[in-house]
Fold each of these.
Amino acid sequence: MKLFTLFTFTILCSYITISAQTLRGTVFGRESGSQKPLAGATLRWLGTTKGAITKSDGTFMLDRSTTDTLITSYVGFKTDTSVVPNTTSSIEIILKSGLLLSDVNIEAEGNSTITQASAKTEKISVRQLEQSACCSLSEAFEKSPAVEVSFADAATGAKQIQLLGLRGIYTQIMTEAVPMIRGLATSYGLDYIPGAFVNEISISKGAASVLNGYEGITGQINVCYKQPENEIPLFVNGYVNSMERMELNLTSAQKLSDTWHTMAFAHGRIQNHQQDGNGDGFIDMPTFKQVNGMARVLHRSEEGMEFQLITKGLHDEYQGGSMTHAMSANDTSHHEYGISTKTNRFEVISKFGLNPLTFNPETNLGLQVSGVWHGTTSMFGDDRHYDGTEQQLQGKLIFSNEFSGIKINYGASLLIDDFKENFLDMTNNARAQQTGDSAGNIY
């Protein structure tokens, strides 16, 4: 009996000792006359690293320390310092609301109008183009994260641009600030601009100024050709790869006088190698041939008058389909499926500018006139034929004034697009015809 009494007494003493070494309690916050438990309040014994954080109901359990001073803090409330005797096993701590800081006003001048805020533009320089195997505009964006180029149709070789998540016609592609890759040129237009012709590419994401066109929903891409006054008299560039792709580029810049400069461009490429890596009997990538030439004339006078004329022509062919097809408009003896596309295109861009006007020194004048003739003939197998012709005329008259550092552009533009498309399906004896229309715009 004495042994049992001694054992019970020892257990009770141990429990009392453990209880005395642990402090339990609840932290409340008093604000606007009411108090509520604070979750996440911090408790720490003064001069030590021992502490605890309250639970969701404001309760806590904290081991005792050699000191009896407890510091309690919570964001938005005054820090509380309490003396807790060693004999105390539970406690309630009430924090008072902290002092409110006075308002802080931060003022600064910023761009408040659209004309003052410049659009974010990424530029790809000729130096960046030289660092990659850039043979055409479609291959010029390999190192640019802003633009993604992909095949719209692997069978025909048509490519498309993706900007801000949208593909195809939502991105406006211009050459020398004139919309050119549009209409019938959308499918293969990225291959119509050789990399050796390009001096700089500007990429504007999002809605851009309507000054250069209104068709860019996701952004605008502007390609600037090489300037004759900055280039060497003769430049020759060649390219050959393991897939039997061969290219040759030639540019020649000549200075006729102090105010007149001219430059000639020539490009040719060919790939006849047919590749079938997956063994399905169809060409993985169409073969192609292209001949491309361009001439540029530039005149700048000391009086501020500027004149530019750019003429460009090309012939382009694509062959796709099965490995053994023989595409010919007059050969109907074969039964292999093939795809053939032939394109002829001619472009003219002229620009005239007066900076400034003689009778009004604060006003600048710009006039742009461009024209395009585009003809495409396609065959899809032996039974489907497509012929498309586009004639395009664009005119733009721009006045520019500057008032108190703000530049205002205004003017008028005219766009005439004439489409003629014919599609013949001899399997169903069906023929479809479509013609386009014209549009005029004032902005």
Note: The first strand starts at residue 22 and ends at 31.
Amino acid sequence: MKRTNCVRSVNAVLACASCPGDDAGGSLRSAGVVTPSIVPQATRLTTMRLLALLHGLGQTPQSWQDQVTELPPGFRAVAPWLRGMRPARTEEFSVEGAADDVLALLNQYGVEQMSIVGVSLGAMVALDAAIRAPEAVSHLVLASGQINPPRSVMRMQRLAFSLIPAKRLAAMGVEKRRFLRALDAAAQIDYRGRLGAVTAATLVLVGDQDRANRPAAEALAAGITGARLEVIPGAGQQVNTDNPAAFNKAVYDFLASAPPRRSSASMGA
């Protein structure tokens, strides 16, 4: 059974989430999804929880289709392009810049906190936001994430991806040049020693077939206070699309049951 039966066209919803200027606010709102480009600046969420869905490297906002169709009541979700990843745009990708865009959603919708779910590159962006603005993130889901990617692995990945024809990536909605630059930026991150800054209730997910990210998943769960690690069966790195049913259950059960942790700032108030 679907968690919500009010979705008219999920494809249209996520297409609009990635296409500023398209007027499909009705479909977005009916599906419980809002985007900065569609919803007026004055819009405020007063009775619903804001949920940011951050796509991975090689994915697009459309990759969240299976999560949007199962969105629980009480949530409004936004699935944006990460800065520098959208084709035909001039800005370059950086983890910090993308995290700043995510945190800007708080002012956009007039809320003090949000929940963030990130996969792969999106998990790195989500982690950066939770480290630099712990008071802004109530719940954090890190899927297929990294703390300090092994340089040898990143070099091999870059070489492999550089051999993929640009047309093949374009068919997936991904621009090869941006893809490789984002891969280079991700290779430079290092959150070792900074995980203690995270105060959000945290769930770490990794696919049982994702050997490359398993050590990082274990390190994230060990380094973030109160974090829990869950392995998703039948899934690789793109865990949200490899096994959406198991992914959705893990994420939405966590968001429903895990109380938000208080930041050190709020505890000192």
Note: The longest helix spans residues 244-257.
Amino acid sequence: MVINKTFNNMIIKEKNKRGWIRIVEAFVAILLVTGVLLVIINKQYIGKDDISAKVYDVELSILREIQSDTALRDSILQAGTLPK
């Protein structure tokens, strides 16, 4: 009877070890999939053009044109406030 109990305990411990191994395998699989998704998303983000420098250059050229032209400055000052 004692031998049977120890044998049953060994079987239960072996099943518990298998359960932990499956949990670890699932966790590693989730980490792997997450890592691959992050790499793919990061590559797509890097591939996009950043237009902020172009917008800044256009804004700067418009403001310089307004600064140098008196007629433009006067028309802007007379425009008043924008409607809400």
Note: The CA atoms of residues 58 and 64 lie 10 Å apart.
